[in-house]
Amino acid sequence: MDYDIIIIGAGLSGIGAACHLHRKNPEKKYKILEAREEIGGTWSLFKYPGIRSDSDMYTFGYSFKTWDDDKSFADAPSILKYLHEASEEYKVKQHIEFHQKVVSYDFDTSSNLWTVKTMNPSSKKESNFTCQFIFNCSGYYNYDTGYTPEFKGLENFKGSFFHPQKWDKSVDYSNKKVVVIGSGATAVTIVPAIANQVKKVTMLQRSPTYIAALPNKDKIAKFIKKVFPSKIAHTFVRTKNILADMLFYNLCRKYPETMKKFIFKGIQKELGDFEIEPHFTPNYKPWNQRFCLVPDGDFFKAIKKGKAFVETDTIDTFIENGIQLSSGKILEADIVISATGLQLLPFGGAKIKIDSVDFDITQQFVYKGLMLSELPNFFIFAGYTNASWTLKSDLTSEYISRVLKYLQKHNHKTIKASVIEKNLGELPLINLDSGYIHRAKDILPKQGDQFPWRLYQNYILDYKVLRINSIKDKRLQFR
């Protein structure tokens, strides 16, 4: 056996998992395999202007490492700086091997070991690593390409066209007419970031998204940080923000019409005399899809100042100098940015096998949001859709730390979850009505309709389940 644990991916979850091991299970020998040439995952991959977190950094950061910047919503360089600090503080970097893209996992039941086959994306050289446990922190989307629909007439367009995941830094957008297709977090980030440099930028959306403005500097957090020592202050602010986010989410779910009016009132206040219909009034309930947060209302300010524009319509066809809409209107464009979403890709597209037999993840249920049924010694790191990603990955690390100690204490080599319920119903894994989720429903594992096979998207409940409740469970088999 080469390692006790192999962590896949050196992004936010992978670095966090390694830091937890250093803190809680220092006796374990681990290796991080990263397909790219640097740490950071999403935050080093995406290069589009203004890229930032739309979750506050007190909850998006780690529980064990304070966020000391004044800004609550950090840009990518600040997040990368934070990640590098954490990896140095907890001696993670020496455990990372770059240019190792996982091709397959194969669990041998006689030795209770995983063999991880990797390939160097540049040299195509293959390598094998063996370990007892896999921590899959490879994210949930395809790093090679984003999602771009088939646009009629695109071949006729004479300008530049690209997806933000492949941002072309050589393209000069100064004093150009730019159209950004999409209405999600990427689009509402790019538009204000380039508004002052371009001749005109228009966000073209098929339908609106819920957008809310929040101040980028938290006055309460600033006061707490003045009064209390750094670590205590970080815990207080983190707790405050967790509870505030949970309250807002649950109010949206319980009183959707009331919260709709509240959100629309906030948007109208930001936009002043600008009419919010039809561009900012979605026809679905709040939190049926992900919410977009804009720090200091920068997106609304760009529109109010006449620097940016919004069109709500569908595309009929691309033409030589832009886009013709279904209404007949023409949007002239020198550059079109297709901020049309991600392509989900579980486990980075790697094959999973047990004793060299293919393991079908789509037939399995997710146990407590961190293991697949019938898959031994394999932990998955997935965050929340209604709160900061890291909140759940932190709890996952805490739970795994307890599992490792439990296995060691009882001299077990494997842990596996099995469905014992006779009447377990099936639900989609991700409870959001978003296009990228619908497109991926046939390649994802399943969610059950009852605990512990159901993901409740509730931090307090998960805290109890993963940090307090006993590891022992009749659904878990130890060997």
Description:
Helices cover 29% and strands 22% of the residues. The mean pLDDT is 92. Helix 6 runs antiparallel to helix 7 and helix 10 runs parallel beside helix 12. Strands 1, 2, 3, 4, 5, 6, 17, 18 and 21 form a nine-stranded mixed sheet that branches. It has a five-stranded parallel sheet with strand order 7-16-8-9-12. Strands 13-14-15 form a three-stranded antiparallel sheet, with no helix packed on it. It is α/β, with parallel strands linked by helices and 479 residues long.
Give a topology summary.
Blueprint: E1 3-8, H1 12-24, E2 30-33, H2 42-45, H3 57-60, H4 76-89, E3 96-97, E4 101-108, E5 113-119, E6 126-136, E7 160-162, E8 177-181, H5 185-194, E9 200-205, E10 211-214, H6 219-227, H7 230-254, H8 256-271, E11 292-295, H9 298-304, E12 308-312, E13 315-319, E14 322-325, E15 330-332, E16 335-338, E17 351-354, E18 357-358, E19 366-367, E20 371-372, E21 378-380, H10 389-409, E22 415-417, E23 426-427, H11 435-439, E24 447-448, H12 459-468, E25 476-478
Parallel strand pairs: 1-2, 1-6, 2-3, 4-17, 6-21, 7-16, 8-9, 8-16, 9-12, 10-11
Antiparallel strand pairs: 4-5, 5-6, 13-14, 14-15, 17-18, 19-20, 22-25, 23-24
Helix pairs in contact: 1-10, 5-9, 6-7, 7-8, 10-12
